[in-house]
Write a structure and sequence with these properties.
By secondary structure, this protein is an alpha+beta fold. The protein has four helices and eight strands, in the order H-E-E-E-E-H-E-E-H-E-H-E. A six-stranded mixed beta sheet has the order 1-2-3-5-6-8.
Length: 156
């Protein structure tokens, strides 16, 4: 069945992604807060390493048939994250949340790592979601990843 999303689905997806990342960080003893600031969405202190993280969350809800499409991050986001992190004295990170059919993927990595593994092309960086890319992300210890699989019984 084809899914028809509500007009506010993009906004709701963004809020969901931010809250999901907050939940996961909190569960693993990170001190964290949602912030409304240009460039970052979450400030988190890693209680294990003492690192203060400024996290920009990028969330997408994929329609059936588009699950393996890349998530596009405009290069302007990197400058915004750098500036916000400089103001708050934190290290820039990115969290990527993809709802892909019956699975939600979540990735957290430093901006430095993100730019190293996927250098931007022209105006954008493309976080790839194909099988080969997912396999590489799973094996990379600098990319923290968790996922949920769900049974989609649609509401009618």
């Amino acid at each position: 069945m084809k899914i028809k999303k509500s007009p506010r689905h993009s906004k709701i997806t963004g809020n969901f992604g931010e809250n999901l990342i907050l939940y996961w960080l909190s569960k693993y003893n990170f001190e964290c807060a949602n912030v409304d600031h240009t460039g970052i969405d979450i400030i988190a202190k890693n209680t294990h390493t003492k690192e203060l993280m400024g996290i920009s969350v990028k969330s997408r809800s994929r329609s059936e048939g588009t699950e393996s499409e890349s998530l596009t991050i405009n290069n302007k986001n990197f400058d915004k994250a750098r500036k916000a992190c400089k103001s708050f004295g934190c290290v820039p990170y990115f969290a990527i949340v993809i709802d892909a059919k019956d699975k939600i993927y979540c990735f957290i990595l430093s901006m430095k790592k993100l730019l190293r593994i996927l250098p931007p092309k022209k105006n954008n960086l493309y976080w790839k979601m194909g099988k080969d890319s997912l396999g590489k992300y799973y094996k990379d210890s600098e990319i923290k990843m968790f996922e949920f699989t769900y049974n989609n019984n649609t509401l009618h």
